[in-house]
């Protein structure tokens, strides 16, 4: 056998050559930064299950939003911690709720920052489930009614995108109709279209006190074993009017991201969830991995799989590295 004439290493020889032929890029433009808003004033309380992440009062979340925008990150997604909980999570759609006030504050201070709002009830209900519970089961249609109220409340406050995450059948269509009826036809919907019943959500549930008080969420979130079902869920949400769709979690579901990318011509988000973040932080703290290199490699894998945008708790630190700050 003659020595090979084709030598792929020729184009790996220098940094400039590697950059020249790079197939996938990672930029702050790809990031959506999750933020947790809580009652009070002057609150910036670190979350024990998510090192480097905080509960922010409205005044502090506005300061945080300015910093995020200065790093070139185009968007945030808000999660709320209520003053009080009840059986249906009614504080979620209160016009003077913490999330509504945070939306108004951020849009006033940083009008060009896109504000996405998670639309779910698990943080707001006494039982920790994602909607109205009837006879021990989440009532899909009653929950959709409340999601309509919730979406309109967020849109009135100035949200750019509503992101229903509860995996209720028909929720996207119901929210689209509710928004349009109230004159918010320009408010977009990011559907948690393929959201799996995953063990990777633990740190988030601790952060927002949303662990179910009974049972689990397997009856409405997806079975981790299923791919074809995810394609059907995405198709339904697109048909109902979703402008963007999400796969959640990301790292253990990159095959789903790639499959969705090959089948659908819509913007795709991947959620680099709390468990993925916490594992990397814990391993880096032990000195077992290089934190920064592993973080960027992990985020790049999501882009390579086909995600246009990544919801990630790493957003700020990744943006600083990518911008050389």
Structure commentary:
This protein has 325 residues and is of the alpha/beta class. The chain has a single domain (27-323), classed as TIM Barrel. The protein has helices at residues 15-20, 58-70, 98-109, 140-157, 171-181, 202-208, 228-240, 254-263, 274-285, 291-305, 315-323, and strands at 31-37, 44-47, 50-56, 75-80, 114-119, 133-134, 137-138, 161-164, 188-195, 244-248, 268-272, 309-312. Strand 4 (75-80), helix 3 and strand 5 form a beta-alpha-beta unit. Helix 2 (58-70) packs across helix 3, helix 4 packs across helix 5 and helix 8 packs parallel to helix 10.
Keywords:
TIM Barrel, single chain, two-stranded antiparallel sheet, alpha/beta
Write the layout of secondary structure elements.
Elements: H1 15-20, E1 31-37, E2 44-47, E3 50-56, H2 58-70, E4 75-80, H3 98-109, E5 114-119, E6 133-134, E7 137-138, H4 140-157, E8 161-164, H5 171-181, E9 188-195, H6 202-208, H7 228-240, E10 244-248, H8 254-263, E11 268-272, H9 274-285, H10 291-305, E12 309-312, H11 315-323
Parallel strand pairs: 1-3, 1-4, 1-12, 4-5, 5-8, 8-9, 9-10, 10-11, 11-12
Antiparallel strand pairs: 2-3, 6-7
